[in-house]
Amino acid sequence: MLAGGFDRPDAAAGEAAANRFGYCERPMPTESPAATPPTSPAAAASAPGAALAARGPSRQVLVLVAHPQMELSRANRGLMNAAARLPPAGEAGAVVRVRDLYALYPDYVIDVDRERAALLEADLVVWQHPIHWYGPTPLLKLWMDDVLGFGWAYGPGGTALQGKDLWVVLTTGGPEPSYQPDGYNRYPFDTFLPPYEQTAALCGMRFLPPLVIHGAHRLSVNDIEARAEAYAQRLRAYPGWPELTNTSTTERRVPNVPSDARRAGVVEIPAFPRTTAGPEATTPARG
Q: How far apart are CA 103 and CA 85, in angstroms?
């Protein structure tokens, strides 16, 4: 069910985390590499708001799944498949598109124009992945680095994603009690969420209450199926989620990133004298 939160030893900290992140326990799915956004990359890049303005009443949900070993997954695969099975939506619900990043980019060479075009079509962007070392999986991190570029997603002129929603759907191997001060992960799970929240803020997106599923590999088949079905229906119901009814998107303040925060063009690298490496080196190392 929605809402709730993690049991925490410190009640005040737990209440603050629940107010800030509003955890929910439930999950999502994949797109064929052949499926492409209807808006061309060139047109989308030149008019970030054009695709949104031209759409009808149905909301667009883009689910980006990033599991490096989907063939071994139980929870993420179940969520992804349930989302992918949703029928084409009419007036009754959102249009849900699923993209399996590891299937699309096994060589880690990301088509930035294509990914940006898909983002421009979406009202809700979902990042679904297992937690790897307390953060995103490698390909999703590379996707963030390549796709969410300075001057496009953030910084001066970087307004392409402003007004959209971001929902992270995460699974962990460790059970919920492991994310407590006396557990082997040492910290409440909300400690690891600020990078996601700040990424949304920098891009002018609304960060929605995350969906976190702990101990995913311990779940029964029936439990996975129930969560997957609930996840798919939740995606289809967007934006009619109870917790979004009274949430305003107009008061969001986008952080001001100065134009010189990133270097533009070619960066000159100072030339340093070379020394011979290894046991035959004649020039002493100087740190």
A: 17
